[in-house]
Amino acid sequence: MDRFLEGRTALVTGSTSGIGxxxxxxxxxxxxxxxxxxxxxxxxxxxxxxxxGKLMGVAEAPYSAADLSxxxxxxxxxxxxxxxxxxxxxxxxxxxxxxxxxxxxxxxDKFDAIIAINFTSNFHAIKAALPGxxxxxxxxxxxxxxxxxxxASPFKVAYVSAKHAVVxxxxxxxxxxxxxxxxxxxxxxxxxxxxxxxxxxxxxxxQHKVTDQVxxxxxxxxxQPSKRWVEVDDVAxxxxxxxxxxxxxxxxxxxxxxxxxxxx
Length: 264
Hints:
Blueprint: E1 9-12, H1 18-29, E2 33-37, H2 42-56, E3 63-64, H3 71-85, E4 90-93, H4 108-136, E5 139-144, H5 157-176, E6 182-189, H6 195-208, H7 212-220, H8 232-241, E7 254-257
């Protein structure tokens, strides 16, 4: 792989598993120094740090345990990245949580937590990282939104609201930095194959007494015309493109990667 990110640093939130880890690993392969962040079992965090660290040529990648529902910890995470890696050239806001319920039954605390982690943390991280990017004259901000940042589904009022807000913030930041060498874009995946999502399929299959494949195609991916998972590497490759040569004029975009979901 072309190591075009040599000399660059990246902070990827929610990167101890799934999409975030896939992005972190690809950035490290391309030569970047990467800081991880996220929750999980200690052994899973250790494995992620070792995996990304090996690609960086060190024993383990730096890691922040910041709770992104807390603004002060989010801001400190960016400062820690700058202190440990020398800069925060690339910021990927990927951390997110989900809860499903009808709006009139949706718990207040779940709504507040989803807005805090899926949306508000992006604001605090971007606000903290932008001054350094401006001072260095280069930066890439990538917000992992969702197809639900462009269209709605029932019972996901907090998630859909947060992801729509992320797309709006992306556009606002892009306009503000348009005359610089900084860009801000959103990636909007459909359903991505992760262990958590695959378990969701199996649970649906058991509930509806169908096979896992039928549950995947007819229940989970009902709005995804491809009837196939989006793969973690698909999203990671798009995140890599947005940091690389030829991407400098891509700014303020909400880039769909959803098997045709929002085209319908």
